[in-house]
């Protein structure tokens, strides 16, 4: 187990290098001068552009630029944006908010998704099953921005039950609605995944054995059936947390959540290379750690899985 | 082995979150101690006036600084603010006297030196400010800001300046200083209302980093706090000496991820002001139903034109340019696409500017397909035409409509060629790589007739990207620059516009009205001609 974890951690190094290099190269390869249009309708003074090019090492060959960037990164220095704001500070400000949002979404997704999946998987072909199938189909077919705007319009503006946007430092309560919107799509997938898994395992030998032994239904479903059926679901949930962290751009935009999503989006628009690379580096790390965690969870759910 | 018991729960979560609306609905406060929240975007630069030319930072600094000259919120006309008087006899040497008793927010007095030091600092090359070029007319600018021998992108560095101060700036006494320009420029007093000309306190030169974190100004509002990416809080400066004293106490400039989310807050009354509504609210005049009498409209100092690359035939042919202008149905396009929020233009100078002459463009800006065809025949051109524009910022629809209008009127093959980003588009414009006529526009730096003409149409000017050149226009503009008094200058600039009109170096399309909105709480609020909230006008009921 310890060796497996170590091996996985070592594998992260080339993945980390590869992804950050790609991102770095792509960000600075986007067509258009990053200092064009920065000074309004006029062109920026040459001295300003020169100073900025110097600051971001833009006159060096790409590999040298990347090398310098990486060297700073390893020392824990994420660099500064062109507006003189420390990238690390901005990440420290926004990351907790997005993490909070992602956790709220994950919780909603897991609780509602798994519950709906179990119920419909156990019944099969009943009213509840059809209800779950139809409602998940409905959720899957509408894009997040539509769900977001509709929720904001109906509950925020017409009914006035919620504030249309969240404040500058949102609490967990504020994040319930955006979290729900963010989770809606994956929730449907989780429900369907759980349903299929449960329906399949329901007829497995070990379930029949457990029932034959006279165990109560609650225990058969809760411990024997669910534990095996959750393996694909856990995989999905794990990678989904990573996706939530990086992919909350639309939801954060609609509800004005001051998190990573909006920051990434704005930084790409303003060609803030230092910020984009820093953020993506962080997201890559989150993804890598989440997949590792998911792989380790397998063993907890199914003791037959060994790592040697 | 631990036993994990997962009992399925049918969770029916009802999420009724009644988070506080944030509009502070106590309603008891009169204007005097009221606070308002207004829309902002994240500043792109450190908060120093000389280094801020974009909108997000300007909104904050405009409230915090008052320069020598201010612009009237209704008419855009320049008025002395901190300047007691600005005098000149030859439009080359200006003597500026300051009003007494003004203080910065930290209690130090605003003196002539505060201005001179600030201007020198902003112009100094190695400080790499965004506003440096605004000082290029002052004598000695070339010494503090030497040109980079191979341009900003080249490997060579600009030489280090020999001096840190411009020879054209001299402090006479605490409240007087003189400015000498390299060339006579009669409009100079109008230009210095722009915020890069703001004074800076001693504290800035001692510790620049501390100043950027908590800027100290001399304007009606002082800095309280900033949460990067979220908001900036300002509060009224009670010892403010200016005439534009605010009636409200606190202002929070809130950063929004998108205009759409801000609009939702505005409709719900949790945001107090926004100067330009998002496209989804403008479409089909949706805002009228949402906001009712809370809609604010104001004519602003910008225009839209089609520019021509004079380096590329056939666009250097004046008859073809006139034919193109006469084949555009401005009236119909402004109504259909902009719901009337654009006004068809009849010249190159904006109607809000002093010296604007109606109908300078004459019949050439009127829709007349028959005459357009005649002019086209005269030009002898029969090939295809291209219209280029960036499509971010909502330019696609009208550009397609204009291309169609030309196509239908002239019977030529006219195609619209989009670029996806403004940056990429500007780069091609600057590099003179345009393959056809292209979208252009101008937002006035300062409200003067000169600013609509010189930057765009004088040979070699900063924004004359199409390389238009007419020695007669250049001579007339230079003559106007040298005029001894403002009235004479305006007459000469008007003559220059007439000369420009004969060449049709660009096709004027329309000028813009901004459509904004306010919350229920504000009983009075005005948008100024620069598309910002006039904070002095705000009253809370």
TrEMBL record, chain A:
It comes from Actinosynnema mirum (strain ATCC 29888 / DSM 43827 / JCM 3225 / NBRC 14064 / NCIMB 13271 / NRRL B-12336 / IMRU 3971 / 101). One of its GO terms (biological process) is transmembrane transport. It holds the Pfam family BPD_transp_1. One of its GO terms (cellular component) is plasma membrane. Residues 95-298 form the ABC transmembrane type-1 domain. It is found in: Cell membrane. Keywords: Cell membrane, Membrane, Transmembrane, Transmembrane helix, Transport. This is Binding-protein-dependent transport systems inner membrane component. The chain crosses the membrane at residues 12-30, 99-119, 131-155, 175-193, 233-255, 275-301. It is a multi-pass membrane protein. The keyword Disulfide bond does not apply. It comes from the Bacteria. Belongs to the binding-protein-dependent transport system permease family. The lineage of its organism: Bacteria, Bacillati, Actinomycetota, Actinomycetes, Pseudonocardiales. Signal peptide: none annotated. InterPro entries: BPD_transp_1_N (IPR045621), MetI-like (IPR000515), MetI-like_sf (IPR035906).
TrEMBL record, chain B:
It comes from the Bacteria. One of its GO terms (molecular function) is peptide transmembrane transporter activity. GO terms for cellular component: ATP-binding cassette (ABC) transporter complex; periplasmic space. Residues 78-462 form the Solute-binding protein family domain. PROSITE patterns: PROKAR_LIPOPROTEIN. InterPro entries: Peptide/Ni-bd, SBP_5, SBP_5_dom. Keywords: Hydrolase, Signal. The keyword Hydrolase applies. It holds the Pfam family SBP_bac_5. GO terms for biological process: peptide transport. It is an enzyme of class 3 (hydrolase). The keyword Hydrolase applies. Residues 143-167 are annotated as: Disordered. Residues 157-166 have a biased composition (Polar residues). Its EC number is 3.1.3.26. Residues 1-19 form the signal peptide. This is 4-phytase. The lineage of its organism: Bacteria, Bacillati, Actinomycetota, Actinomycetes, Pseudonocardiales.
